[in-house]
Amino acid sequence: MLSKSLKNNRSLTFYQCSKPPMSGFDRNYAGGATAFAVAGTAVETQLQTHRISDAFSQLRTALIERGKIYAANTTASRAGYMAEEFVAGTYNVDVTIKKVKTPKAITDKSTAAASADITYGNNKASLKYYQNAKRSANAQLDPNYGEQKRIVPTDQLKEAKDALERMATKNELKGRTDAAAQQRKTKELLDDRIRGPKGTGSTPLPKKSAEEFASAISKEGDKTVVDTEKIDKVLEKTGVTKKVKTAKIKNELCGLGLAVAIGAGVGLSIGFITTLAQSGINPDALKSATTEGLKGGMESGLLSAIGYGIGRTLGESATRALSGVLEKVGFTITEDISKMINVGVVGTLTIAAFSTYQFMKLKIKGMATRDALIQTGRQALFSLSILAVSIAAQCLWGSAAGIIVSVSIGIIMITYSIADTIHQRQFAESIRTYTIEKCYPTFSTSV
Q1: If DSSP codes are grouped into helix, strand and coil, which group holds residue 85?
Q2: What is the SS3 assignment for 148?
Q3: What is the per-residue pLDDT across 178-208, written as a single tens digit (0 to 9) for each?
């Protein structure tokens, strides 16, 4: 009976190693679930980078197009219209960078009396870019503007507020309380930018910079000439270009950091828990488990970084190519479908990187090529199945569902693996105890 149990107990030799390797189920989970998480991180990072670039591109285009409409106007007049686009556009850039879900700012382009120049969510703003601070402040005094924010050039803001305070003080001394109240209200509403939720806001624009924007566009006969280099220089001067570049770099680094953290966390947890389950809880086992966990975390983190890098380079190209093929055969590629394709492509490439690494490790340990290919292939297929199920869940219920499914599968597999590991360890201990008992010497006493 015991010999039959030994024969059927395929994992017994597993416990004879001082540092047993990670089990097959654990590697499969690390590959499949981590691949989905890394792929999702890479895709979201890519989308955010594109959103930032698009917001900046829309700002630049809006500036030029608005300036072209008023190319025949005076520079001062054109500067005011282009300033509207700058304020609205830089607000949208900031909202995009900070990932705040709020309505984008739009320029109303209305010529009605006391109409708003910019609308952003439930707020409206009037913008006046006049020759000096006093004139800009006076232009904002119309009571019909109501609760609209009053925007003036950033280099005129302090002086404009001081001018309104002086006006209010003089009117109070003369008994003109209504005029004084309106001037103080305007002063409170005066700002050099529009502001939104969670610290979002437009970039302050000086009067001179607005005029530089306007001077980049001119009318020569029937032809409108645009000096795009000058537009770009002013965008750099105001700090918008640097802000966008910094945000994109930060976004990429955050994406990479998150991918590495996910991979390292999964690898560390699996390595620690699996080793502890194999050895039991004791001081030596805890030390060994910590070592194996750190080693697994470093390996998984490195692989995740490689997978993320592949996703942000080859993944984008492969996704565009596959989307192009699908469109040619008649499929309509929506944003959600594009995201799923991207996750699938990046996830597959990540699993390929994981599998290649695992194959190399097996070969270095001396395993035959055929056996290494079979083991790696099985693990890759299992990982791909987790990825496929996660993408299907994402398709039906959204990104969160995909994460929940992949993590749930992982928890089930890890639970099964740990339970099996503990069972095998206990079984091995029973065999050891049984063997020792059978080897006890038999003493006989003679009378």
Answers
A1: helix
A2: coil
A3: 999 999 999 999 999 999 999 999 999 999 9
